[in-house]
Design brief:
Blueprint lengths: L3 H5 L2 H14 L8 E2 L1 H8 L3 H13 L3 E4 L3 E4 L4 H25 L2 H20 L2 H19 L2 H24 L4 H15 L3 H24 L1
Antiparallel strand pairs: 1-3, 2-3
């Protein structure tokens, strides 16, 4: 952890955010025990802020605290992901619909850049950057709506999906179709074709959900 973070925010919060990022990125894998003593030494902090950070992670549903046994990183639930993607399918469609009607030139430039960076990262096999730019592309679509409620709702759902993005890119191959779908969505939004943009976004998420449901059940 960057030690400067300690002086910028409460210690409990800083440790919580770092552990959360490590869990979401898969650096702390499901089943890993979070030992207060070890984490205290690693973070250069007392056990109290570490314990508080673990409680916050448990509240987020990322950690399971077992009486007399300790705290463990929770497993990834396929059922929960499918539930989230069913909701995302409609929200993504709605976001793309309104983004096509409202996005300005700045949003379109950002969307183009994210699309290109995603393709570049994918071609280089850089999973971390691929996941980042995939999420960023969809985040920019949401921002293009100008709808704060939609942004807040998607932020909550994205946290649930992020862990699966890393698993997805490690487990599955042939992601070129996502590049094509991003391009199609970008073109529809650029042309202010709301109906087509909404249809493309819903189809994109639906196909992803179906692929994951089939792939993880095999």
């Amino acid at each position: 952890m960057d030690k400067n973070i300690y002086s910028q925010k409460p210690l409990r919060r800083a440790i919580y955010e770092e552990l959360k990022e490590e869990i979401l990125k898969g650096e702390l894998s499901p089943g890993t025990r979070l030992m207060e003593v070890m984490l205290s030494k690693e973070k250069g902090a007392s056990r109290t802020p570490v314990r508080d950070a673990i409680k916050l992670l448990a509240h987020d549903g990322l950690v399971d605290i077992r009486p007399n046994r300790g705290a463990y990183v929770k497993d990834v639930s396929l059922g929960e992901l499918i539930d989230v993607l069913e909701v995302r399918e409609e929200i993504d469609g709605m976001a793309a619909y309104y983004a096509a009607a409202r996005a300005d030139e700045a949003v379109l430039r950002d969307l183009q850049y994210a699309k290109d960076q995603y393709k570049k990262a994918l071609e280089l096999g850089e999973i971390g950057k691929t996941v980042f730019w995939d999420a960023e592309f969809h985040k920019i679509v949401i921002m293009g709506t100008g709808n704060k409620t939609l942004m807040e709702l998607m932020e909550k759902l994205d946290e649930k999906v992020l862990r699966f993005r890393y698993v997805y890119y490690e487990k599955f191959e042939n992601h070129e179709n996502i590049v094509e779908e991003h391009t199609m969505l970008f073109e529809a939004i650029s042309k202010k074709d709301s109906t087509r943009a909404g249809d493309i976004a819903r189809r994109h998420t639906r196909l992803l959900r179906e692929k994951i449901a089939t792939g993880f059940s095999e």
